[in-house]
Sequence to fold (592 residues):
Amino acid sequence: MPSFWHIILRRLLLVNFVCGSLFWLVGWYAQRWYTDEVAQAELQRLEGVATALRVPLTLLDHEDSMEQMRWLEDAVRGTDIRVTLVARDGEVYSESEALADAMENHQRRAELVEASRLGTGTSRRVSATLGIPMQYLAVTVQRDGRDWGYLRVSVPLRVQEQRVARFCRRYFILALSLMALASLSSWWGLRQTVVPLRKISLAMHDMAAGKSVDDVDIPWRAELGQLGLAFNRMREKQQSRESHTRHTVDRMSTVLAGMIEGVIAVDPNERILFANRAAGRLLGFVSETAHGKGLLEVARNHMLREAVRVALNSQSQRDHEPQNFEIVAGSKRDRTVSINVACLPGTPSPGVVLVFHDITELRRLEYLRQEFVANVSHELKTPLSAIKAYAETLRSGAVDDPSVNRQFLANIETQSDRLHELIQDMLQLARIESGEQAFDITSIDIGQAVEDCVARYREHAASRSIELAIEADQPELKVRADDEGLRQILDNLVDNAVKYTPMGGRVELSWVAEQGFAVIRVADNGIGISKPDQLRVFERFFRVDKARSRELGSTGLGLAIVKHLAQSFGGSVALASKLREGSEFLVRLPLA
Ligand code: ADP
Fold:
């Protein structure tokens, strides 16, 4: 934008050029006119003088040139007029400014030549006698009815020139003053317009640059005042609209940032317009730096890109209805994500909004439910099939065979017990998990609980030549737990330890206090559990060696019950084991 002084300078140059040209033209004509006027006036003056001198001159003694000369000198004394009397043959009789004898013959002087023809003659030229430019007027003089000579009056042109020069000087000063006045008023007028416009223009620039702008102060001045008021109103409206938009955007950003669902908006070229943190977390990218980058470059997921393409291509037919896709995402491809893809309104659509829901847990639970149903069916089917087989065998005649009938009935009983035990375990687990199980949380002495448990299993362990030991010198610790629940935890762990430790092995129980918790340790030197299986032993129905475990009468629910009981008491359970070396189960329970 040109500066104020730039505009002013240009305007002053223009004004001065126009005025200067005008004044020069007018001045030129005025000078010519004035020069003519002055010359005319001088001639009239000379004519007046000549007319006044003409008659008395005829009365003078024409023989006495000295008298003539004196008379002429007296006649023009005190004026700038010069008088010359010239005979018809050009000889100078007398002269008011010079000696007539010294002057040359004037017959060929232009004014005299003209006067001889017309009676009056004029000329302007440099005087041969005085050597200065002069205005001459000559008239014929008659005496006794005959042409006698010429009376010539003249005046130096210097006087006229001085008057014209004075006129020009005054005109020049006037023109200069008028030009200065024009410049001044032009400057003032322009300033009145440019300064407010400049204020508004600067404020608009600031507004466009996103700066905060104050009201522009424009004194009331017709349209400009109105413009200033209009601008201030517009600025106010714009700022309130801006702050409203900012608030809305902030609110939306807070909502979007706080959403558990991921949200990404992309343009038709699949460049990211917006991505919230949840989307970054789900797809494994930093949402703050994703703006403007390509979707594939950021998320590295072809399924996602395909979903966007499908949505963009089908926008016309589906009329912006959101479409649903399911993709595998995450840096380890371990998340299942459901995406709702909706095209932004407009034709063609300016982009696509994707909303991501992490349904990994949902899918896992679905899988667990299916697996649970399959496991339960399988677990129930085995003893039921056995019972059915024994019953059929008995019905088809074995019932009368005393060598097997009792055995078969005993087997049916065993399988029924197993079924019963299985259903009991399942019910208990369901109750613990659903929180239905009512626990009576009290302070329980660990030493006492462990001793009771060892007493219950001593005989069973001895039958398998397994040493069941309590590590001596244990501190007296009390935990907050349900008596029956703690008994079940210890029983399940000791039962497993005895079950999965070969004859002659050793099972050891001990406990210590650790950061507000009691850690009860049940360790054996049995068959141990491999690393991958260690991660799964706490799952329902998981058994390392299904056939062997079933033989040992296990349900695969024991450790799941231990885990859920410990968690219900505010604790946890952990396992450390080495295949063929033994296992160590650590139950952490809060100290009483
Ligand atoms: P089960 O009723 O089969 O014992 P659990 O849930 O108690 O069911 O145990 C699950 C599986 O963990 C068992 O089938 C067994 O394979 C393994 N397991 C549990 N305790 C031990 C242990 N002390 N030593 C070796 N393996 C064990």
Q: What stands out?
A: DSSP finds 16 helices and 17 strands in the chain.
